[in-house]
Specification:
By secondary structure, the protein is α+β, with helices and mostly antiparallel strands. It has helices at 66-89, 115-121, and strands at 11-20, 23-32, 50-53, 59-61. The radius of gyration is 32 Å and the shape is elongated.
Length: 138
């Protein structure tokens, strides 16, 4: 006969994408929300961040309606179906990305060398042995 009190979502876990090593990973942070704290105050979190209550496991951020959940599931299902159809048809081509940066590349001129040229000239070494040695001042 005891009525369950609704969870106040005081203790939460925030999952954010952070740079760990050489890649970005989801990192969990424990937090305490004082009474009067609203879920709208979690608006500073970036896209791809999540917030869950530690006690009742309810999703606090970002809130999604059932219509948004259904639309996301439908979009994911159609995307998978299109990829499978493309793989079956053999037309799967990775998307090409356009870069906004212009890259200048200097091309080297190729010069053909025969074995006879190498044998005639031999291997030439630099006669400056002083350039490789350290001076006493350094």
């Amino acid at each position: 006969m005891s009525a369950e009190t609704p969870c106040r979502h005081e203790f939460i876990k925030i999952y954010q994408r952070k740079l760990k090593g050489l890649e970005r990973r989801l990192v969990a942070t424990k937090a305490y929300l004082p009474i009067g704290f609203k879920t709208a105050d979690l608006g500073h979190l970036s896209e791809g961040s999540y917030c869950f209550c530690s006690k009742c496991r309810a999703r606090l951020y970002p809130r999604r309606t059932t219509a948004e959940k259904a639309a996301a599931r439908l979009a994911l299902a159609t995307e998978k179906a299109q990829q499978e159809a493309a793989l079956i048809a053999g037309e799967f081509v990775p998307e090409e990305r356009e870069t906004t940066q212009a890259i200048d590349v200097e091309e080297l001129e190729l010069e053909t060398v025969d074995v006879q040229d190498i044998e005639a000239e031999g291997v030439k070494l630099a006669e400056d042995d002083e350039s490789c040695q350290l001076s006493d001042d350094e």
